[in-house]
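This section describes the prediction task in plain terms. A model, or a person checking by hand, is given the sequence of a single protein chain and must write out its three-dimensional structure as a string of tokens. No templates, partner chains or ligands are provided. The sample shown here is typical of the held-out split.
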Amino acid sequence: MASNSNASQTFTCALTGLTPLTDAVVTPSGYICSRKLLLTKLSENGGMDPFDTSRTLDESTLVDLTSSDSAVAPPRPPTATSLPSLLTQISTEFDTVLLELYDTRKSLEETRRELSSALYQNDAAVRVVARLVRERDEARGALEEFLAKGSVAPPTAAAAATDGGEGAKRSEKRAAPVEEDAPPSSKKPRSNNDAAVAEDLSKIPQDTLNTMTSTWEILSKNRRTIAKKSKRSKEQIAEQDKLLAEKLNGEEKKVNLGKSTAKAGVLCVAKISTSCHLNGVGGDEYIVSGGHDKQSIVYNVTSGQIVATLSGAGGDVTAVSGMVVTDKVMLVGTGSSDGLVRLYSVPIASGGDDEVQLLGSEQLGKGEGVVPVSVVVHFSSTAESATVIVGGSDGSVNVFKFSESQFKLITYLKSEDGINFSSGCIHPDGLIYAAGTTTGKLLIYDLKTQAVAGTLEGHDGSPINCISVSENGYHVATSSSGESPIHIWDLRKLKLSATITPPSDVGTVASLAFDPMGLYLAYSGEESTKVCVVKDWDRVVSSLSKTKTGTKGNNAQAAPTCGGVVWGGKGLEEDGGKVWIAAGCDGEKPIRFWGVE
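The expected answer:
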């Protein structure tokens, strides 16, 4: 009976107040403890008895009190013998968990703030470094220009000898431009020294870049104004959608441009813009078109008359652009399949003595079959000094300059090897150029730094045949000759924001254009033209009539390829809501207008 009594006896640890399960011991001073806890305590206080600090305590002096019956369950502590005690214990543990969770979240928030601050400081450092690099390059350019004018004596023979003759070569390059008084015939746009030309063409000249930048400041203000006006309520959207449909869904107008004996087909159409440096000059609107007849036609949409016929191309005219630079003159740039880029001066006023003048022409590439895929008369152009940006099929961005009766190449930016361009477009600000490639990539060039700012991939690798940038500068629309949908890119984030699958009655989309306010997008295919709403891309507000093939009977072919679509008017917000659309196609002679009386 004594053993049973001892087996059922329980002990309470003097250190914890709990019942030791298997390792109860008694100290020489008469205290019962858990062996494990007591040894831990002794290791902490240097072997002193925790109950009598005047004496030491060793493990060998401990007496085991382990029960021989291990099946006896230990009793519950007094705090866990009633339901209220259990609830209190659970509540306490729950509060502890909540406090720990709060501390964890607080620590996470502090870590996030530190990370955000670090990222901001890193971004600021990157911007500072970029600015310093740009200032360094500008300083070097200014120094080179100063040395080229002969203000500093060339390096001595000794210096030339120490650098292996490189100093002499550099001085020759610097001295080359110093022929201010030479006749125009001696100033060749291309030099026999290809290495020197390549070095000179790697950057946009600083004076041209300064002019483009000052124009950018004006255009960016106009773009912000357009962005504010493009914010509409639901009622305004419904009202303007109805108004646009009424203006465009009326009777179409056909205008035959070009030679009647030439092969039918309009390959390109562009709206001639007005220079931002002109205030309220004229009210007429113009377009320029090109096709198989090897000539470009400037047409006054307001009066319905042909202003000028620009001839001289040695092949199909595939790219056109124009800008009104004075109240009497417009500049028109063209590109043709023979690889030549031409710039014309076209008088606006009728009945005058002025005639169309070919200001100059230049061959793309070096006779390697390079053709222009896009031609843009830059917004900074004037009658005396014009800048033309041309995308070449060899994957190059070419900047031509007309000044002092000369038209020559001043900048040649070549993309990576193996990249060929199929289309191009300028940003409304004038300092960003978008180029579409034959592999479905969209390259975004920053003309201020003459470098690629971003590369966007899409269209399943099919060539990009058309690019359009909205007037507010936010969206870029691209189409492909393949079966991929229209891609809408967000230029601010450099990523794909939406896609548009054209209806079956459109066919392969070959031309895109945003309206003057950036509220609508028109896309044309081989069968018809549709107008959809920006940011509600799948909602079509106007369907324009189908085009017809230019052949009949047994010679009938598939529907023609669209050669271009452009918007006119000032948008639904301006000029009484005047707006119109023009479209041409390969296989048809006339250009179709909607919304034009």
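For orientation: Helices lie at 2-8, 35-45, 83-148, 157-162, 166-175, 194-200, 206-229, 234-248.
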